[in-house]
Amino acid sequence: MTTAPTFSKEERIVSNLLIETLFEKGNSHSLTAYPLRAVFLKTEHHEGCAPVQLLISVPKKRFKHAVDRNRVKRQVREAYRKNKSLLEGKVNEDEMLLIAIIWLTDKHFPTLDVEKKMISLMKQIAKDKA
């Protein structure tokens, strides 16, 4: 029996240092597949970190209620989890890829649409990797 891909804690950006590195001016690259925007950066590998790390941001400005923000984050997380194989193997052993996914609208989208947009972004990141 094969196990389904998971989205573990090691795959999440939790370090403030990594978040600051990702959003520093001029270093990172940005792609948009409405309603998602991806900010990504290839950097040197840190000990104990997964080769690809993800941060999901759904601003309170877009959805006032936490239940709405959580639903969107769940959709994005699931889309990433199911399709992260698109990025695996694209990063060298001494490097890591930091990705921030930012929700751009105040509207909900069907899960299939979110997944299609996520796949589109992940394919572009795999191709464009800085």
Question: Brief description of this entry?
Answer:
The chain is 34% helix and 22% strand. By secondary structure, the chain is of the alpha+beta class.
Describe the structure.
- With 130 residues, the protein is α+β, with helices and mostly antiparallel strands.
- The protein has a single domain, classed as Ribosomal Protein S5, domain 2.
- Helices cover 34% and strands 22% of the residues.
- It is built from three helices and four strands, in the order αβββαβα.
- The protein has helices at 16-23, 66-83, 111-128, and strands at residues 29-33, 36-44, 52-57, 95-103.
- It has a four-stranded mixed sheet, with helices on both faces.
- Helix 2 links the parallel strand 3 (52-57) and strand 4 (95-103).
- Helix 2 (66-83) crosses helix 3 (111-128).
- It is globular, with a radius of gyration of 14 Å.
- The termini are far apart.
- 21% of the residues are buried.
- The model has no long low-confidence stretch (mean pLDDT 90).
